[in-house]
Amino acid sequence: MNDPVESTEKRSRGRPRGWHDKTEQNTIKSLDRAIVVLQRLGELGAVTLTDLASDLGQSPATVYRVLVTFQNRELVDFDDRAQLWSVGPGAFLIGATFLRRTSLVERARPILRALMQETGETANLGIERNGEVLFVSQVETHSNIRAFFPPGTVSEMHASGIGKALLAFMAEERRDAILSAQPLTPYTAQTLIQPEALIEDLEISRDRGYAFDADEKTDGMRCIAAPVFDAFGEPVAGISVSGPTVRVTDEDIDGLAQAVKTAARTLSIAMGASV
């Protein structure tokens, strides 16, 4: 005879048995309409009941009941003097739980894998740590000739695609502090070691949305990288593809850059960014 406790545990699951059914029976319409009100309030900022109801095309009485319900849970605030509604601290606390559970490496893994499959080149994920690039994840290409940056590898930022992508989008004060901390190492004849030339390259990278390492760390190897942003719009990581010059040709750059930018944008959205 089965243990009743064990049977209960086996029956436990995250969704009911019919969860694949996407019909209206699985949707609480009133809750869905209420969430629309909250989302729109977040987009508009502080707003009067009249203006919010007009924007949503709903009656003020209906919207008011939704707002009061949210107010009781501190999801919205009401300024009695100005007669304005706005998103409250309760909504922030719920959002903060999402940020706490967000794992950069975990969320990046399927994106890196898809990027490698699309481009045929090694896909990398790196972050800035103590003024250097720390590679935290990689999906290698199946080609014999390939770049190899195992997790834990560090690189100077000025000679790295990911490093330049992060430098291009970070605050100037932080960028300048990193670049002036020590002399820039000339790894190859193409390495940008003059601050003026490097900053010009970073400005170009920012304008086009990606950085390009053209044989600057290793002769015969190229890298295209784009930044990943968090919920606060700050660059917290970089995604790149890297490979030999014979495969990453001048004609291939535009297509590879678009794929990298798309991957970086996908991960940014997963990290809570509004892009």
Task: Walk me through this protein's architecture.
This protein is an alpha+beta fold and 275 residues long. The protein folds into two domains: 25-99, Winged helix-like DNA-binding domain superfamily/Winged helix DNA-binding domain (Arc Repressor Mutant, subunit A); 102-270, Beta-Lactamase. It is built from ten helices and eight strands. It has helices spanning 4-11, 29-44, 49-56, 60-72, 89-101, 104-119, 161-169, 172-180, 195-208, 253-270, and strands at residues 76-79, 84-87, 122-129, 132-139, 154-156, 211-214, 221-229, 235-244. It has a six-stranded antiparallel beta sheet, sandwiched between helices. The protein has a two-stranded antiparallel sheet with strand order 1-2. A hairpin with a 4-residue loop joins strand 1 (76-79) and strand 2. Helix 6 (104-119) packs antiparallel against helix 10 and helix 7 (161-169) crosses helix 9 (195-208). The longest helix has 18 residues, at 253-270. The protein is elongated.
Task: Write the topology of this structure.
Elements: H1 4-11, H2 29-44, H3 49-56, H4 60-72, E1 76-79, E2 84-87, H5 89-101, H6 104-119, E3 122-129, E4 132-139, E5 154-156, H7 161-169, H8 172-180, H9 195-208, E6 211-214, E7 221-229, E8 235-244, H10 253-270
Antiparallel strand pairs: 1-2, 3-4, 3-8, 4-5, 6-7, 7-8
Task: Give a quick set of tags describing it.
alpha+beta, Arc Repressor Mutant, subunit A, Beta-Lactamase, 2 domains, six-stranded antiparallel β-sheet, about 45% helix, transcription, DNA binding, GAF-like_dom_sf, DNA-binding, Tscrpt_reg_IclR_C
